Amino acid sequence: MLARWLVSGDVRLLLLDHPTRGLDIGARSEVYRLMRELANSGVATVLLADSLEEAIGMSDRIIVMSDGRATTEVAAPAGGKPTPLDLVKEMV
Q1: According to the 3-state scheme, what is the secondary structure of 35-80?
Q2: Handedness of CA 24, 29, 47, 64 (dihedral sign)
Q3: Contact at 8 Å (CB) between 23 and 31?
Q4: Which 3-state string (H, E, C) describes 11-38?
Q5: Which secondary-structure segment (H or E) carries 8?
Q6: pLDDT average, residue stretch 84-88
Q7: How far apart are CA 9 and CA 82, in angstroms?
Q8: pTM for this entry
Q9: How far is CA 76 from its chain centroid?
Q10: Are the C-beta atoms of residues 51 and 19 closer than 8 Å to each other?
Q11: What are the pLDDT digits (tens) for 46-74?
């Protein structure tokens, strides 16, 4: 499905709702590689992740939400990723 959108042309924003759910480790790695490649080329991506580890690993910025509202924003740059505990503290 992801490939179909990419071949469609001028993609500037991707909304990925649990894109690795049900995939084996090899397929997950390929999806992660593709997501990084797209981000490096300027495509904005909104990721709803299956796990905190996935969200942290694939994000530059994490928005914590509660009751449909953004409650906090956490920076997650390559050299300074938050821990899952950092995010859980923001969720409670």
Answers
A1: HHHHHHCCCEEEEECCCHHHHHHHCCEEEEEECCEEEEEEECCCCC
A2: positive
A3: yes
A4: CCEEEEECCCCCCCHHHHHHHHHHHHHH
A5: none
A6: 91
A7: 34
A8: 0.78
A9: 11
A10: no
A11: 999 878 999 999 999 999 888 888 999 99
